[in-house]
Design goal:
By secondary structure, this protein is mostly helical. It has one domain (2-258). The protein has 12 helices and no strands. The longest helix has 26 residues, at 39-64. The protein is globular and about 55 Å long.
Length: 259
């Protein structure tokens, strides 16, 4: 019965991802925690789940020419080392998962709140960024070093929470590169998310924070559901679905961060 439940959970999250475009980490980790899995197992398993589910998207976006590989490289230059160092510190500084649980829960809550804010104000962020002259702001004139620094911050928080490699990273790309076409923002974001979540997930694997039986069940349910949800999503009002989901993520974020 547990196996069937986990497959159905994977299918539900996959369907939601396909319908709304919201990253699986924002949905899967809270769901696994609500199922009773320890925070460290939920986060570690979800990171490898994210790497597997996003890999197909990289292939599709590469064929379509939607990936700015230079930006992927700059993001990864910060995020990959940061993810490795974060996992190493969790292993060396703390004696067990119970000791770093407060760090994980707070990070998860903060990233869920930030992700929900990005979803709620996505259209306003996009409109404002498209009106910006890239030469008028310091952050845009120094976009490369800021991209590396942003990648490093993502590496830390994605490793600690499994959330942020999707919608939050896309928002950073919009701010740093305001005239980057929307499809290239999505493609670049996904291409960076795969190695980041894979490295962070492997770090959690070394910490003993991955449940492979759970991971397999989630993938069995989610992979076909994502495909179906993507086809169905084009027929449904996304402007209604995303705010509802964003509000739910905001409430979960507040719960994990402050209670």
């Amino acid at each position: 019965m547990d196996i069937i439940l986990y497959i159905l959970a994977g299918a539900a999250v996959g369907l939601a991802v396909g319908l709304t475009g919201v990253g699986g980490g924002s949905l899967m980790t809270p769901l696994l925690i609500l199922f009773g899995f320890p925070y460290n197992i939920a986060i570690g398993t979800d990171l490898l789940y994210a790497a597997a589910t996003k890999a197909g998207g990289v292939v599709a976006h590469r064929r379509a020419g939607n990936i700015r590989w230079d930006l992927v490289g700059w993001l990864a230059a910060g995020s990959i080392p940061a993810a490795i160092v974060t996992a190493a510190l969790l292993k060396s500084v703390f004696t067990g998962a119970d000791e770093y649980k407060p760090l994980l829960t707070t990070s998860l809550g903060v990233m869920l709140i930030l992700t929900s804010a990005v979803l709620l104000f996505k259209s306003r962020i996009t409109a404002n960024c498209q009106q910006i002259d890239p030469n008028s702001r310091w952050i845009n004139r120094h976009a490369r070093p800021v991209t590396v620094l942003s990648g490093a911050l993502l590496g830390v928080f994605v490793t600690l929470s499994s959330v942020g490699a999707g919608a939050f990273c896309a928002a950073l790309l919009l701010v740093l590169y305001p005239h980057l076409p929307a499809l290239k923002v999505v493609g670049t974001d996904i291409a960076h998310a795969v190695p980041l979540t894979l490295i962070a997930g492997l770090g959690h694997l070394l910490l003993g924070n991955v449940d492979f039986m759970l991971l397999g069940c989630l993938l069995i349910g989610s992979l076909p559901a994502i495909h179906y949800g993507t086809r169905l999503g084009s027929r449904l009002p996304n402007q209604v679905l995303q705010p509802v989901l964003a509000t739910l993520l905001m409430m979960l974020g507040v719960k994990f961060a402050f209670f």
